[in-house]
Amino acid sequence: MKVLHVESGRHLYGGALQVLFLLRGLQGLVTEQVLVCPPDSAIRQRGGAYADRVHAVPMRGDGDLLLIPRLRRVLRTEQPDLVHLHSRRGADVLGGIAARLAGIPVIVSRRVDNPEPRWQVAVKYRLHSHVVTISEAIRQVLLAAGLPSEKVTCVPSAVDSELYRPQAEYAWFRQTFALSRDERTVGMVAQFIPRKGHRVLLEAIPQVLRRHPQTRFLLFGQGPRQSAIRRSAERQGWAQRVVFAGCRDDLPRILPCLDLLVHPAFLEGLGVSLLQAAACGLPVVASRVGGIPEVVRPGENGELVAPGDAEQLAVAINRLLADRELAARYGQAGRERVLRSFSIRAMAEGNAAVYARVLGRTRALPSHPGLA
User: Fold this and answer.
1) Tens digit of pLDDT for each residue in 187-237?
2) What InterPro entries does UniProt report for this protein, alphabetically (predicted)?
3) Which residues does residue 284 pair with via DSSP β-bridges, in sequence order?
4) If 142 and its partner were Cys, which of 71, 147, 169, 266 is the partner (CB 3.0–4.6 Å)?
């Protein structure tokens, strides 16, 4: 089975990182893999370690109609058995058209839980042979919009549990972020866009600092709302309490040193940063939206709060900062859940099973508890 993957993301986080994991996990499950990605993308270099070939193709978004002939040229050259589209930005529709014109079965991954109009679902997904969602919550959104159940399968995202593990280097961590020994740290890893809920965390900070004044909030990521969030923190006098750490490539070293991770999102397909935190043995406080409850189990490995409720968020943060034993118990349970249900192998086997089904093959693939 020869599979051609299309990923339009330029940065190696979120969906692009999952594609890299999938390329790695599919080795031995498919005979050949080809990656198509933008010339300036981070996955172009990294993907070559797992894909048999990498094609650099310009991808300029939904309006880039010339992507269709570009992809068709690659398809004529490679002649894959199946095309797997991983990005919504341009690739899902335009890639679907290119594959259909070439007469090749095409699968699309859906990573977001925002609803689409029924007419759009009916038209758009007619291009695709099958849809793979990264959470059951996203699958339910598509079913509610009229997509037939036999056309959509949930295969959860994965985390590299060997890279993300509970190995804390506290001395290095304190030196890197200029922290004193008695400071507690609350982290957030997310793009600075409205749906991630940074403003909710800012609203919760006063209540947290009243009970835990030696708390530092470390915000990792970048995005269009970063400057506004920074200005808001400065206006409220928290410039010394909120650290804007940017995008870092050493998160596996940083996360185990935090006291907890927060994710007050308004919309979230699943939340890769939650998986990374859990793999590092961190307790998590997050919103009860989208696929997050599939990762964070209240009373087991973290706490869930209503989206937009800063008071609930502060109460949950304060509880875990005050109770180290509870936080440690949540962290251990989170690590165990990741190993059980969100491994790279499980994700790869789940996608390979979909490939075989779409191609009408009956390959026997090993079962995994993460697919249950």
Assistant:
1) 999 999 999 999 999 999 999 999 999 999 999 999 999 999 999 999 999
2) Glyco_trans_1, Glyco_trans_4-like_N, Glycosyltransferase_grp1
3) 261, 302
4) 147
The reply to whether 323 and 351 lie within a common domain is no
Neighbours of 248 (CB within 10 A): 12
What is each CA distance from 196 to 229, 264, 269, in whole angstroms?
Answer: 12, 6, 11
| Gyration radius of the chain's alpha carbons | 21
Q: What pLDDT digit, counting tens, does each position of 157-177 carry?
A: 999 999 999 999 999 999 999
Please state, in angstroms and rounded to a whole number, the distance separating the CA atoms of residues 138 and 196: 17
In this structure, the answer to whether residues 227 and 281 fall within a common structural domain is yes
Nearest in space to 129 (alpha carbons), one of 147, 156, 111, 143 = 147
C-alpha to C-alpha distance for 341 and 151, rounded to whole angstroms: 23
Question: How far, in Å, CA of 7 to CA of 20, rounded?
Answer: 10
* Residues 193 and 336 placed together within one structural domain of the fold: yes
Q: Name the domain count of the chain.
A: 2
195 and 336 co-located in one domain: yes
Whether the CB-CB separation of 109 and 15 falls below 8 Å is answered with yes
The total of other beta-carbon atoms located within 10 Å of residue 97's CB is 16
Summarised one tens digit per residue, pLDDT across range 96-113 is 999 999 999 999 999 988
Give the torsion sign (CA, 7, 227, 307, 256): positive
76: how many CB neighbours lie within 10 A of its CB? 9
Residue 307 sits in a domain whose CATH number is 3.40.50.2000
Cα–Cα distance for residue pair 372/370, rounded to 1 Å: 6
Say if residue 176 is exposed, middle or buried (CB neighbours under 10 Å; 0-12, 13-18, 19+).
middle
Which of 134, 64, 46 has the alpha carbon at shortest distance from 341?
Answer: 134
Task: Indicate the Cα dihedral angle 154, 141, 102, 156, nearest 10°.
Answer: -20
Length of the chain: 372
